[in-house]
């Protein structure tokens, strides 16, 4: 599988490392019967000499890898579905792994990938550790990052979505219904998507000439409990907001629950816009008006991209944001006059 | 990979088929460079001679396969999580495929499996086509069925859950709260789990000496819209039920929505019990009292079982139902007096 022009070089590299060519080959292919010390030595030399497997060689199997830091997130399923769709039409099978933390998958996963030699890797992470990047690149295994947090590292192929526009259309919808006391709950303040959506909200308010009440702008978490506790605070203020733009559908469910326990009817007494448009947005009571984040389409795009990269070297690092759009359902209405 | 005692036989089989031994080996391993006609001929002879690869041989890769007829179902994620948990602790990777219809995965999937040679296969189907069973068995690839519909074919290893008990505990809970006008919406009338849960409901009512109003027993579908439309009918009756036992959490969400649009408060005016205990049951407003169907545990059990089967031949076909249990949250309460 190694083209002959490079064979000599691997021979030299083996000599330099003081190991056999077969050992070098084992390291290249992620085989487990190599000591950690030898593996490190060979990897270092591969890096030093800038070894690069020729792209376009057939991968051993017909696999595409999908890696998540955690499957607990509500939108994992939408992403799985997207990769699965593209895999099916390309006669590939999807290897699904939950590994690592929010920043990078674990080293154990990396070794497994070299052994499985997939067509490519789709990662749901903000970044990939430098060693992992180097290892995948040297084996000509392409990878693409899907980053719903909206801030992927600058040197990796990445698919995101238009967070700022999402914040804008959600808020504009509430303004058009006649609301002026509009609150925004966004995500954690260490995620760029939180800021992007909030900036969209601010721009909508500013261009409509509506002053923003600072007490109405909150950072939280994207979970149900986050929405519930912040909404309770907002809704028990004397001059409470008549509409809340939530940072996620789950957060919006928390807002609905807070409203219910306070005896407020949605959308009569309170309008709510969610974010993500997960399946459950249709199932909530009332059905959620929300911003559609095209998670399935993002995953499809990432899978298609990785397949394309496996077939030819791309000139530039592909990066794109897919469009978001508003989906109007039953949780928003005009405010009660007065 | 074929033990020598059988080598002769494969030689003979190749001769009988008029092909080379290497062609037979290609068919055994799901390689694509064999004509469909040759493949069928060799498969037929393998079946005729009862060829059986010796179990316990190392699989080529460290994969475990998980196959769904569709990933659209709300509980797919819970099952994926379970298989992923067991795979991780056993250093295996999960290949996830959406294939076929409710009855069996597609032939294309089967060919892929032979090529990938996984440790084993977990299927979310009621059954597996006879040819697929024979092919997997002859290659010593073990498989286990997870059948949430509650009626797996009798000759396959299967993991289910205690549907009858689930119906019983849900109804008993409502009776203990003081309800007597209790309706039951169950699933489609071609799924045995619908009948099992309904029978549990009947037994709870009968042993409590409460007469069942026939109009209160309905078959529907397990989706939100099914719950909504049947609940509308039930709740607009003059002598409407004060409690509804729904066939799934999604159905229960539909019941909540029907109640809301009719101006009925849950649980004050209407108690609702769901079924499944999906994550979203905690997120509904109010949070759902529901029957926990241990989907993740069922998947874990199936994955563990398939690994055990890959290591040794089991004497009997393993089949089991895991226990269900009631989870009380905020959607049930005592009926209003009078």
TrEMBL record, chains A, B:
Pfam families: LacI, Peripla_BP_3. The keyword Lipid biosynthesis does not apply. Residues 8-53 form the HTH lacI-type domain. Keywords: DNA-binding, Transcription, Transcription regulation. SUPFAM superfamilies: lambda repressor-like DNA-binding domains, Periplasmic binding protein-like I. SMART domains: HTH_LACI. Residues 6-52 form the HTH cro/C1-type domain. One of its GO terms (molecular function) is transcription cis-regulatory region binding. This is LacI family transcriptional regulator. It comes from Arthrobacter bussei.
């Amino acid at each position: 599988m190694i083209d002959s022009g490079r064979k000599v070089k691997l021979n030299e590299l083996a000599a330099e490392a003081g190991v056999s060519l077969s050992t070098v080959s084992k390291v290249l292919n992620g085989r487990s019967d190599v000591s950690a010390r030898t593996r490190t030595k060979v990897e270092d030399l591969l890096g030093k000499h800038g070894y690069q497997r020729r792209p376009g060689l057939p991968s051993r199997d017909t696999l595409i890898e999908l890696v998540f830091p955690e499957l607990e997130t509500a939108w994992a399923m939408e992403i799985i579905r997207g990769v699965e769709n593209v895999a099916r039409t390309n006669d590939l099978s999807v290897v699904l792994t939950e590994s690592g933390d929010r920043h990078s998958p674990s080293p154990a996963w990396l070794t497994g990938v070299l052994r499985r030699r997939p067509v490519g890797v789709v990662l749901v992470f903000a970044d990939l550790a430098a060693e992992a990047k180097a290892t995948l690149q040297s084996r000509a295994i392409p990878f693409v990052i899907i980053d719903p947090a909206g801030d992927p590292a600058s040197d990796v192929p990445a698919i995101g979505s238009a967070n700022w526009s999402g914040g804008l259309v959600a808020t504009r919808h509430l303004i058009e219904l006649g609301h002026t006391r509009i609150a925004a709950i966004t995500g954690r303040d260490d995620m760029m998507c939180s800021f992007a959506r909030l900036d969209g909200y601010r721009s909508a308010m500013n261009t409509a000439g509506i002053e923003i009440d600072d007490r109405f702008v909150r950072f939280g978490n994207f979970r149900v409990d986050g929405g519930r506790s912040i909404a309770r605070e907002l809704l028990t203020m004397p001059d409470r907001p008549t509409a809340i733009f939530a940072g996620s559908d789950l957060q919006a469910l928390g807002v609905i629950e807070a409203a219910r326990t306070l005896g407020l009817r949605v959308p009569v007494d309170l309008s709510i816009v969610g974010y993500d448009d997960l399946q459950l947005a249709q199932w909530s009571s009332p059905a959620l008006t929300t911003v559609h984040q095209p998670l399935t389409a993002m995953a499809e795009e990432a899978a298609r991209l990785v397949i394309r990269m496996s077939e030819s070297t791309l000139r530039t690092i592909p990066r794109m944001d897919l469009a978001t759009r508003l989906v109007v359902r039953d949780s928003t209405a005009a405010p009660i006059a007065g």
